[in-house]
Write a structure and sequence with these properties.
The chain is 38% helix and 16% strand. By secondary structure, the chain is α/β, with parallel strands linked by helices. Helix 1 (3-15) packs across helix 11 and helix 3 packs across helix 4 (106-119). The structure holds adenosine-5'-triphosphate and magnesium ion.
Length: 282
């Protein structure tokens, strides 16, 4: 068994303790279109269902704009600027946030980067929870479906429209979140389904004016990232200092060679310097 297969097996075992995966369906899907972003239109982006974010929940979960740690705040702004430059330079509009193994801070990074980007007056953002087996975005920002709110799985199963699963916080109108309230075990199948292609096309229609960020599971845990990668412009890899195993990281980078790696975020760094706290390479 190769290093990659071994790493995939070990990580998948941990990741799927409570969920089963199935092999990804193959087949080509439309890629997100690349259209130059007219920045001046950012203020006119479409708003979806209004939601009010609970400041207490955001603060508790270290999420912008309630993030207090000044080092982390500076680091997210640096990351925002570097990502914006890279996306703009290449006319890219979408990326997935992933990592090698579970718990490295992918979701927290995806949310805070989306918030930081949406704080920029010229940038509008879609944040999509694409960790279908363990969706967490809603929890982290304090959304729940206690009033029958719909999420991504409802759309993918054909039970909801995009308008029913997209939410725009009243305090941050340049951000729209597509959360998920319902975990599924057949994630790969849904990620390569016609409904997923439909969502990609709907996001594409919004794209000239928006950046789309997909929060995804670890690259070694399943084939979800590999299956979905043709639909995004690139990948942002989150690595947790002192946590991400060296072999797992090597395997992840090997797998990501087939994809467009936009950068690496070093999370949970001991270093006090903000550039190191969430450093960005490449
Ligand atoms: N830099 C950080 N400082 C403090 N806590 C952090 C940091 N990054 C992540 N965490 C915490 O670690 C936990 C895991 O983070 P998160 O859910 O973002 O990881 P993940 O990589 O998305 O995990 P999964 O693989 O399960 O999707 C969360 O409780 C989060 O708040
Ligand atoms: Mg996550």
């Amino acid at each position: 068994m190769s290093i990659i297969e071994e790493a995939v097996r070990k990580t998948a075992e941990r990741y799927h303790r409570s969920a089963q995966t199935e092999p990804a369906a193959t087949g080509s899907r439309p890629r997100l279109r690349r259209v130059p972003p007219p920045a001046s239109e950012a203020a006119n982006v479409r708003r979806f269902q209004p939601i009010t974010l609970d400041r207490g929940v955001l603060e508790e979960n270290n999420i912008l704009p309630q993030l207090i740690d000044p080092g982390a705040l500076r680091a997210y702004k640096i990351l925002r600027t570097r990502m914006l430059r890279r996306l703009e330079a290449n006319q890219w509009h979408s990326f997935a946030v992933t990592g090698a193994t579970p718990g490295e801070g992918k979701t927290l990074t995806a949310i805070n980067l989306a918030m930081a980007l949406a704080q920029d007056s010229n940038t509008s953002v879609f944040l999509v929870d694409l960790d279908l087996q363990r969706p967490k975005v809603a929890d982290y920002i304090g959304l729940n479906n206690s009033h029958g709110e719909r999420g991504l799985t409802d759309f993918l199963l054909g039970d909801a429209t995009m308008e029913q699963i997209a939410y725009t916080p009243s305090s941050m109108e340049r951000l729209t979140v597509i959360p998920n309230f319902q975990a599924v075990s057949n994630a790969s199948d849904l990620l390569t389904s016609p409904r997923m292609s439909e969502l990609v096309q709907l996001l594409e229609a919004e794209m000239p004016r928006r950046i789309v960020i997909f929060d995804m599971p670890p690259v070694l845990a399943s084939d979800d990232v590999l299956a979905f990668s043709p639909q995004v412009d690139g990948m942002l890899l989150v690595v947790a200092e002192g946590t991400t195993n060296r072999d797992a990281l090597r395997s992840a980078k090997e797998m990501l060679q087939e994809m467009n790696l936009l950068g690496v975020v070093l999370n949970r760094s001991e270093a006090q310097d903000e550039a190191a706290y969430y450093s960005y390479a490449r």
